[in-house]
Every structure is written in C-alpha cells, then in structure tokens.
Amino acid sequence: MDIDEAIKIVIKQYQAGNLKQAENLCRAILNYQPDNLFVVNYLANILQDQGKIDEAIVWYQKAIEFNPNDFGPYYNLADAFFEKGQTEQAILNYKKTLSLNPEFPWAYNNLGLVLKDLGKLDEAITYFKKAIQLSPKFALAFNNLGNALQYTGHLSDALACYEKALGINSKLSDAKWNIGLIQLTFGNFEKGWKHYEYRWETKESGSHKRDFFKPIWDGSSLKGKRLLIYAEQGVGDEIMFASCFPDAIEQADSCIIECDKRLVPIFSRSFPGTTIIERFNTDNNGAMALLSFDVVIAMGSLPLYLRNSLNNFPSRKSYLIPNAEKVDTWNKRFKALGEGTKIGISWRGGKDAFIKQIRSMVLTQWAEILSIPGSYFINLQYGDVRDELKQIQDELGITIYDWEDADPLKDLDNFAAEISSLDLVISIDNSTVHMAGALGVPVWTLLSFVHDWRWMLNRQDTPWYPTMRLFRQPSPGDWESVIAKVKDELLKLLGNN
User: Fold this and answer.
1) Which residue numbers in the chain have pLDDT < 50?
2) How far are the Cα atoms of 126, 202, 461 from residue 353, in angstroms, in the given order?
3) For the chain, which domains are there?
4) The pTM is what?
C-alpha cells in the first residue's frame, strides 16, 4: 500500500463528506502503520464527526500516548469531552492544550464556552477576551463574548460584540440571531423580528426550517388563499405565537395550523373554522402533500408581519378556551378544599442546564409565600415532584395540593382547565405562565436577572399577556427580593396587609 497516496484519498473522501469510506481507509492504513500519528488523529476526527464520541476519545488518547507533547490531540480530546458533556475532563484537556501552546486562541474560546455553560461567566469572559487578544479577527469569539456579557446583563456591550463579530464575518448567523434577541429585548420589534429570522441558520435557536414546497407567506394579501402555519419550537412558544393566529385567520380564506399533539384539543376549540393538525415528526413532510394550501409560514415568523410595534398587540384578555366540563371538575375539586384563594405554583423550567440553573428555584425558597394564611397552593410543576412536596409538608406543615391526573407532560387540555379554575398562578418563566396568560388567568411571573427576550426590560407587564405581572430579580441570583415582593403583593391581594 502506498501510504502517502492512501492518506491523500482519505483527505479527499473526508472533504467530500464520505466519512465512512474515510474511516475504513484510515483503519486499513493503521493495519500497516499503527503508529502513524497523522492517521490516528484523522481517524479520531472522522469518528467524532460521525457522532462516535467514545471511539474518538480512545483514538485521541492513543495519539497523546504516541506524542504527549503535541497540543493538538489534547485540544481535540477536550472538544470530544465537551461534546459528550464531561465538562471537568474538557476543562482539564483545554488547560493542558494551553500549557503546551499558550498562543492558541481556539482553546481559550472553547474553554470559555465550557465555563459559560457551567455558569462561570466572569471566567468565561476572561478566556473569550484572551482569544480575541490573540486573534483580533476572531468573529466567533466576539459572538461568544457577547453571549456571556448578555447573560451578565450587559446588553449594550453584548450588542457591540455581536456587531463587531458581524463586521468581521458578515455571514455569521449566530451573531445576527443574537442581535435580534437583544433588539426584541429592547422593544425594537421591527429590527428584532427581521433578525429573528436568522434562527433557521443557528443551532442555538432550536428551530428547524422545513420545506413544504409552497411559497412562504411574506405578509402580502391572503385573500382567497389557504395558509398553513407550522410549529417549530417548544410548547410555551407555540402558545405565545398562537396569539397571532386570529390576525392571520382573519386575513386568510382558511387556515391549517400544525401544533404539538397536546395542544390540538385546545387549539381546535379556540380557533374554530381552522384545521388543527398534530405536529409531524418527520423531516420529509410527506403527509403534508395530502393537504391543500397555498402559502406557508412558521409560527415564530408571524410577528414579523403582525407585531411590528406595541400598537400591533391586541388588548384582548385571552385567546385560548378551556374545556368547560373539565373546568367544572376542577372547580368542584378546588371548592372542596374550602374557602380561600386557590393559587397554582411552578418553580422550575429551562431547556438546558445553564438556563434551568438561572431561571429555576427550589421549592423551599417559597417558604414565606407558602406560609401566608387564607390560601391554598396547587402544584402546577411538571415532572415528579413528590419528594419536594413531602419536604414542604414535613418541614413547614404545609400541604401543596396535587392530583395524579394533572400532568401537563401528557394532557395539556386538562392542565388548561386546571389553570382556568385557579384564582392566581405564580411561577418562574416556563410554559405554565404562557398557558395561564393565554387563558386570561392572573399570573405572576418570577424572572431571573438575565431573562428571556420576550419579557423586555424594566416592565412589570407584557404586551403578550394582559393578565400577567412580572417580578424581576434586582441582581443575579437574588430570588430573596423577588419572594419578598411577591409576599407583600399577595398579602395585599388577600387583604392581610
């Protein structure tokens, strides 16, 4: 075997995206030259690109055994551990990389990413700045620095970093997306929604664009046309963007709305005259070909044409309609508890570990609120929280009422009826507050210092939900002040103060 020629073929196959062929050829080469460091490294990279992280780690470690003074395998090993979620090992190997090559900006950048995900924002900022110092045209590092600054509440500085990143690389979609979120936070809707469209080009947004082979609605007249609105994000987002449905329905000849399966009953009830279908779990959308429609739009794109200023937000109290029979059942349950205000609570949420960490609370932090007489507290937290409810019962002697059939992860229609029967909902930022706001139930939303873009800045209300009040942390992590404020307001509401 001509090894040099074989390696050239490996590189060509890899660059062409033929990863399996490249992998097989690497293994064949290593049968002849098991100590070929270049091929060992290349095989590890190919395995990682195929998602075979554990195998890649083994080969990176072999490369290190062959040459422990080469920084490259340590860096690649750190990336693999980071991708696998083994942050301690990732940090260890990034630092080893930098001990061997202290001038390597990518290692500083990626170490900053790990630390940011761990909530160590000040350290992360230091490493991002070091990466930029070593490489002043490092657009991704500027974007990542902006992201860390955004999470510390320095929004203007973050915006400057995103714009700097774009100035270096005008095609950097992550920076465009982040600019959109900052602009929406500032209440600059027109510019914000335009940049929000870059969510399709970034993994951070969690949105996945789908091709229905029909024109995308561009805000033009829908007269005589049938519009398909499709789901793209989480349940909370679907509920919030559903506030735009009536505007689109009014303009179109008819509408098809695709949504999470659990939302089909309440959407069907709330938007009569539309066709509500379950969200497809396939990328080819073959079943959609059976439906007749003229234009299509993602739910998250509706505000681009329908919510360009505060004046575009309707003043209606609610837009979702619960099941009347289920509401009656919950009313009877709550009435049986006795006289008093029925308050639903939820204390956890977030789609990833870092967001969950800054957004969520532990139930014991609610002690001052839960101890207020004249009210009954109802569990609205999704997931298994039996141990937490028992802890509150044992430590405070307070019962938080819970029913086995109240499971929002399985039955959102029943959950909506439960919320509709409450006098008040108090919750951190999760899908519960969206449901309560959409139903027109009074809801107090407890926000972390660094919060989601939709809640904007310095407002105690939100244009999305007229019955919602916002209670904001005055500084990072300060839930104590939030709880104290909620306690005071609840005492006033109950007439105890």
Assistant:
1) 284, 286
2) 22, 19, 27
3) 1-102 (1.25.40.10), 226-312 (3.40.50), 324-494 (3.40.50.2000)
4) 0.90
